[in-house]
Specification:
It is built from four helices and 22 strands. About 10% of the residues lie in helices and about 40% in strands. A twelve-stranded mixed β-sheet has the order 8-9-10-11-12-2-3-4-5-6-7-13, with helices on one face. The protein has an eight-stranded antiparallel β-sheet with strand order 1-19-20-21-18-17-16-14, covered by helices on one side. Strands 15-22 form a two-stranded antiparallel sheet.
């Protein structure tokens, strides 16, 4: 950690590593048809056909295939997240869908016991030790593997895709692709995609020197498991014995709340802002404005709340956990701003410098 003293970020700022990458965990899904079947080539997605023919690989096309795969597969498995400094976490995930709706259950196998359910945009976090279940609506991606939806983003301008070799991951034959950043505002990514199902089975996040900052991978995975949406929904709705806490979120805009950006940070487009309440356990609830930005692969959030001398330090704070970077500081004298994302620190600083308060 850098800065004057360690600051423990409350739950609304730092998403648990196993719940969402990124701040959330950035993890991805992708599809690649079986390359060894000439008869099937006419049915291949354009991204796969282009890669086979030697044409430039379109980042946007691959990202579209990754998102599609996330809604079309039932699966269950155990995944592990390993940071460069040695920290490791693991979780068990079940994902079910019927083409229109989807639901997932993620159980932490390390760290604080918790179970997270996500049904479309609704998220419920069960904390068995505290006997609390926390509910809220979220637009951020869910557990590994997940990929953000981005409106107004052009990832091909900021990443180029390189086809790699083949490996076996979690007992499955996988193809490797690299998303190489075209500038220094974002990290690179390597992904390993199951050839038969199109599901992401492994991902690495790389710094500008090519060093692995964080790795997430399935250690075991079963595709096509007979999961039932109704049964999983009943599990999610069973809150007997738990105190229910609802985190209200109200859609808004930065402009409506008196904030603007002096300039756009290259490649990152706003995906919306939300008014919510902080969940600091020892302080009264405070109003918090969260604004979400993405370039199609990387996602970051900027949180703005009233500055309080008892809650916040005097000096700016920086922290990194694997690929996730955090920057927090006082702006304008009366606002504490926390930026969180799987992007370089310079990107978070650029957001801070571009922010302006005043109608």
């Amino acid at each position: 950690m850098r800065g004057q003293r360690r600051q423990t970020a409350p739950d609304h700022r730092v998403v648990p590593r196993w719940q969402a990458r990124r701040h959330a965990v950035l993890c991805m899904l992708g599809c690649l048809a079986i390359l060894a079947m000439p008869a099937a080539r006419a049915q291949q997605p354009p991204a796969v056909a282009a890669a086979q023919s030697g044409e430039p690989v379109d980042a946007a096309a691959w990202i579209a295939r990754m998102r599609q795969a996330a809604t079309e597969r039932n699966y269950s498995g155990t995944f592990v997240v390993l940071a460069a400094h040695g920290a490791m976490s693991s979780a068990r995930i079940w994902h079910a869908c019927d083409g229109q709706s989807q639901i997932e259950r993620v159980e932490a196998l390390s760290g604080t016991p918790r179970v997270v359910f996500r049904r479309d945009g609704e998220v419920r976090v069960f904390l068995p030790r505290e006997h609390i279940v926390r509910s809220e609506m979220q637009r951020a991606p869910g557990a590994f593997p997940a990929l953000p939806y981005g409106n107004g983003v052009l990832p091909a301008r900021h990443y180029r895709v390189q086809m790699g070799g083949q490996e076996r991951v979690a007992g499955l034959d996988a193809d490797m692709l690299s998303f190489v950043p075209r500038d220094g505002w974002r990290y690179g990514h390597r992904v390993w995609i199951d050839r038969a199902s199109g599901l992401l089975v492994k991902m690495q996040t790389l710094d500008s020197e090519g060093r692995v900052l964080e790795q997430a991978a399935f250690s075991e995975l079963t595709m096509g498991v007979p999961l039932d949406l109704q049964s999983m929904g009943r599990m999610m709705d069973d809150v007997a014995g738990y105190q229910q806490v609802t985190v209200a979120t109200q859609p808004t805009s930065a402009q409506a709340e008196g904030w603007s950006m002096a300039e756009n940070v290259v490649g990152f487009a706003s995906q919306g802002c939300y008014n919510r309440r902080s969940l600091a356990p020892t302080e009264p609830a405070q109003p918090v404005l969260q604004c979400i930005y993405t370039d199609g692969l990387a996602t970051l959030s900027v949180f703005m709340e009233p500055y309080g001398a008892r809650r916040h330090p005097l000096m700016p704070q920086t922290l990194h956990m694997g690929a996730t970077q955090i920057l927090a500081q006082r702006l304008g004298g009366d606002t504490w701003v926390t930026a969180v994302g799987e992007v370089p620190q310079r990107t978070l600083r650029q957001f801070m410098e571009a922010m302006r308060h005043g109608r």
